[in-house]
Amino acid sequence: MARVFSGIQPSGNTHLGNLLGAIVNWVKLQDIHDAVYCIVDLHAITVQQDPVKLRQSTLEMAQMLMAVGLDPDNCILFAQSSVPAHGEGGWLMECTVGFGELNRMTQFKDKGERTEFISAGLFTYPALQAADILLYDTDQVPVGDDQRQHIELARDIANRFNSRYGTEEEPIFVVPEHVIPSAGARVMDLKFPENKMSKSNDGSAGTVLVMDDLKTIEKKFKRATTDSDTEVYYDPENKAGVSNLLSILAAVTNGDPETVGEGYERYGDLKVATGEAVVEMVRPIQERYNELAADPAETLRILQAGAAKANTVANATLERARNAMGLLPR
Fold first, then answer.
1. How, if at all, do strands 177-179 and 3-8 pair?
2. How many domains does the chain divide into?
3. Which residue in 28, 191, 199, 309 is the catalytic one?
4. What's the sign of the alpha-carbon dihedral 213, 219, 225, 231?
5. Which listed residue, of 6, 64, 123, 291, carries a Cα 20 to 30 Å from 213's Cα?
6. Could you say which of 28, 111, 191, 309 is catalytic?
7. Domain that holds residue 132
8. What is the Cα–Cα distance from 199 to 15, expressed in whole angstroms?
9. Residue 273 sits in the same domain as residue 299
10. Which residues contact 202 (CB under 8 A, 6 or more apart)?
11. What is the mean pLDDT of the chain?
12. Quick check: helix, strand or coil at residue 54?
C-alpha cells in the first residue's frame, strides 16, 4: 500500500474547515493506505505557547482525531516531539534548502506580519515540515490546497538531496505527492466567504467549531452570507457565499458541489439543509470526544504507543540520510 503522512497543529478549537478539509479525508485514507498522522507540537512552538495549554491541546487534538474516526490500530498516531528524528531530520533539511526558497514562502510572510517577535523557527519550519514527510518514505500528503507550496518545497528538497547524495537507482528519499479532497478542501468563513475559515476567528459567527452547541451551529448557517441573487448554483468566483454552502454540503453528504444544490430554489432552504447536515455529522463526534476526554491517561498511552511505531520507521530513514551525507555512525 502507498504510505500517506499528514500533520496538524495542536491549536485547539477544531473547526469545520479542519474537519472537512483534512481530518475526514485522513479517516478514509487509513483504510486504503499505510497511514501516518502526526500532531505537530514542534511546529506549534514557532510562536510562544503557554506550556500547560500546549500539553492539554496536544491531548485534545488526539482525542478529536480519534473522535472523528482515526483508529490507532489502523494508523500510526503520535506527537511530533516524541520522535527525536524529526528535530535532527529538520536540521538536515535546513542544510539542503536555500534561504531564498524559505524567504518566498507565503505563509511565513503572512504570519510574520501578525507578530512582533519572529522566531528563526517560524522562518525555517518548512524544512522541518519536509523532514516530517520524508522520514516516513511518504508517497502522498493529504492536506489542504493552502499547503501546496510547502509540499512542493518538500519535493524540491527531496530531489535535491537525492541528486547530491543518492543515485537514480537508489534515491535516499521518496518524493511525495500532494493530494487534496475534491469537496470541502477549502472551507470559507460563513460571514466573509472570501476568507478561509480560521481558528483566529473562532469566536465569530463565520467560524463553525466542531464542539459548538448544535443549536449554535444551525444558527450560524442560517445567518450565512450569500448574495442578492436568488438562484442556487456553484460559482465560487461570482457566488462565493452560496458556493461555500454547496461545497460544505457536498463534503458532508459525499456529493458534488456542482449538483448538490439541485432542488433548492431559495437560499434559506439551502442554509437550513447545510446546517442540519453538519449537525448530524458532528453530533456523534462530540459524543465520542467527550468520552475520550474523560480519560486523558489513555490518550497519552495511545500517543506513546504510536510514537514507538513512528520511531522505528523514522530512525531507519534518518540513518540512511546521515550515512549518505557522510556523518559518522552512532
1. unpaired
2. 2
3. 199
4. positive
5. 6
6. 111
7. 3-185+295-325
8. 7
9. no
10. 13, 15, 209
11. 93
12. helix
Predicted confidence pLDDT, tens digits, the chain (330 residues): 899 999 999 988 899 999 998 899 899 999 999 999 999 999 999 999 999 999 999 999 999 999 999 999 999 999 999 999 999 999 999 999 999 999 999 877 777 677 778 899 999 999 999 999 999 999 999 887 778 899 999 999 999 999 999 999 999 999 999 987 665 667 999 999 999 998 776 668 999 999 999 999 999 999 999 999 889 999 999 999 999 999 999 999 989 999 999 999 899 999 999 999 999 999 999 999 999 999 999 999 999 999 999 999 999 999 999 999 999 998
Q: Using an 8 Å Cβ cutoff, are 222 and 212 in contact?
A: no
Same domain for 23 and 164, yes or no, is yes
Among residues 28, 191, 196, 309, the one annotated as catalytic is: 196
CATH number of the domain enclosing 245: 1.10.240.10
Q: How far apart are CA 297 and CA 303, in angstroms?
A: 10
214's enclosing H/E stretch is helix 214-222
Catalytic residue flag (residue 196):
yes
111 is annotated as an active-site residue: yes
Q: What is the CA radius of gyration of the chain?
A: 21
Orientation of helix 267-293 relative to helix 296-325, angle to 10°: 90
Residue 191 included in any domain: no
Residue for grid cell 557522510: 326
What CATH code is carried by the domain that includes residue 90?
3.40.50.620
- Partners of 8 in the β-ladder: 39
For residues 124 and 35, membership in a common domain is answered with yes
According to DSSP, residue 35 is labeled E
End-to-end CA distance of the chain: 31
Residues facing residue 178 across a β-bridge: 141
Alpha carbon distance 157, 151 (integer Å) = 10
- Do the beta carbons of residue 94 and residue 53 sit within 8 Å? no
Burial label, 288 (beta-carbon count in 10 A; 0-12, 13-18, 19+): middle
Are 97 and 53 members of one domain?
Answer: yes
Report how far residue 85's alpha carbon sits from residue 162's, in angstroms, rounded to the nearest whole number.
19
Does pTM surpass 0.90?
yes
Q: At 28, which amino acid appears?
A: K
